[in-house]
Amino acid sequence: MYFRFRYFSPQLSNVVVNCLNPFFKVDCKSGRILNTDDFKYLARKLTHGILNKEMSHLKEDDSLQCNDCQNRNKRVH
Questions:
Q1: What is the value of pTM for the model shown?
Q2: How would you label 24-50 residue by residue, b for 16+ Cβ within 10 Å and e otherwise?
Q3: Contact 10/60 with Cβ under 8 angstroms?
């Protein structure tokens, strides 16, 4: 189970960071993230929350992978 987590985590964190990047830019009108520490905290918190939820729904023989459907769902949340 740990190996699945270790390989899935970087993929998921990339998706989360890509979703948060527009809020970190200077020209963001609403919901702007002001500093790097807040950005890192949010990215880490969201990644761990999504990972915990995915791991709770995982069966023993399932594998974790980032697909387009999951990416769209994470962008919505």
A1: 0.71
A2: beeeeeeeebeeeeebeebbeebbeeb
A3: no
